[in-house]
Amino acid sequence: MQLSVINSPVYLLIAVLVAMIIGLIWYLAKQHKVKPVINASSPTLKTTEIVFSELQVRTGFSSEVVLHVAASLAQGSSHPLSQAIVHEAQKRQLPIKPVSEFQTYQGYGLTGLVDGRIIALGNLPLMQELGINIPAAYNQLHQTQAMDVRLIYISVNSYLAGVIFLTSLPQ
Asked: Model-level pTM?
């Protein structure tokens, strides 16, 4: 009985501190100062901005066409990765065309028709699921990517056209 009397103030103090931290996070999020991001290995609070870093295209494709079809497809999604692609196309003043048969694969990517071409935009598992042949060099990119770099694969008519590199920048 004596032990619980001594520990009660400690539990009360911990509860008050946790409530204060939650209140502070809520206040900052409400003020749009931070965006909570949960990392699977350790929950942390940080702000990030996703930015376009690089585009690698395969022989037979131009970077303008690949980015144009990727941005056209990405405009249908509010995901930050999609918005970074759209932003880069707008910055380069590339046309963003309407999409038909738009489909979202949550956690994987997007598909649809742009200019009559079947476009897929997403991660390596989506490309594999769609039966897109990924050359060994591009498959190795996936294995060696840094933690703050996201690889977005683009296929045109079931043929890998290129890879977009997006980077997470702390704000």
From this structure: 0.69
